[in-house]
Amino acid sequence: MSFTEIPILDLSLARSPDTKPQFLESLRHALLEVGFLYIENTGIEDELVRHVVEQGKAFFDLPVEAKLEIEMKNAPSFLGYSRLGNEITKFKTDWREQIDLSTNHPLRTPDEPLYRNLLAPNQWPDPGLLPHFRLVYEKYIIQMSDISMFFMSLVAEAIGLPPNAFDRFFDASQQHKLKIVKYPDLAELGVAVEGRTEAQGVGPHKDSMLTSYLLQATEHRGLQAQNTAGQWIDCPPIPGTLVVAMGQGLEALTQGVCASTTHRVLSPPPGAGSRYSIPFFQGVSYDATFDSMAVPEEVIALKAHSINKNGGRRDDVEFTFTKGKYKHLGEATLMNRIKSHPDVGEIWYPDLLKQIRLQQAEESANGDGIHGSPTPQILAEIPGHEVAAVEAH
Questions:
Q1: What is the enclosing helix (H) or strand (E) of 299?
Q2: Which run of H or E residues covers position 309?
Q3: Burial of 69 (0-12, 13-18, 19+ CB in 10 A)
Q4: Are 283 and 174 in contact (CB under 8 A)?
Q5: Which pLDDT tens digit goes with each residue over 240-285?
Q6: How far is residue 154's CA from residue 132's CA, in Å, rounded to a whole number?
Q7: How far apart are alpha carbons 35 and 195 in whole angstroms?
Q8: Tens of pLDDT along 353-375?
Q9: For a designed S-S bond to 98, which of 3, 181, 266, 364 qualifies (C-beta 3.0 to 4.6 A apart)?
Q10: List of residues 6+ apart from 225 with CB closer than 8 A
Q11: pTM (two decimals)
């Protein structure tokens, strides 16, 4: 039977030799059967979480002109502020406002590949308006980076690999990313009068890299994960937890054992106020090429058994890692970012955006669409067609 709720794992159990085996057993079950989970007792200080939420909300209260000073299209890095309705998932508008941040990196030099534009300094809001914002978020990104790397060592052990099995896919100064997202309610969007009960905060998608960690900053429901029967399962906010999602990169590397679960966000109902969320996305080296890892055969067999007993795997989003389309992960990531943010593409990558639009037109003419998600065999790099691998919660 397909999952009907999201498991909650106590991360503190993984830090003790006495309770770690119990944690790994629970994690293996979550990886094989769900692909989505909560973690509690993460080790992040409650005071820091409170400041992260306060500063995140305060950002959206800034005057419009102050936010536009750090608009994403100001730079080729896809870091910065995005206006409401300025991002696209599965050819539909996502009704959210957001700012993208990452670990700081120097600007790309002319001799480096174009995809290294993705590594760059952040665009920070005016410190005169938000004097504590940068300090709070730099500290949070550092702590989340440590948690994500620790968690990946646990994923490796849970599926029978050495704890350092994934280390070769990370840079010494690995970039990780974070978004602060505001989802206005339907009344704020002006659609409540039309009798609509749902709107796309962000459409059905799979995260693109290895793992992501969502801090649900308000009590609103809206996040939903899709089980193998195609049903949408609520992931309500639980104080003191982070929601962990497995990405398509992890699914490809582990030969489908660690499935990337499709998820979406519905806009809050009229009068509920805005939903705020702060997802952290674990990065992978943009220079990486994705070769499958030697996952033990008995673990692969367990995954196959799980899929079979659930009657197969129905999915609203195609698995979009296809072998051989790009040489490096960075090339594929750059193309996906241009698809999601065509306003940035028009300024900084017009030739690549033209190429994408021609390809989309051909697919539309040929009637290509989403028909489900096969279990991957030995798959490699990221996509090329529909924007189903994105960064959002």
A1: helix 297-309
A2: helix 297-309
A3: middle
A4: yes
A5: 999 999 998 888 888 888 989 999 988 888 899 999 999 999 999 9
A6: 33
A7: 34
A8: 999 999 989 888 887 543 333 33
A9: 181
A10: 6, 34, 35, 36, 232, 233, 235, 245, 261, 262, 263
A11: 0.87
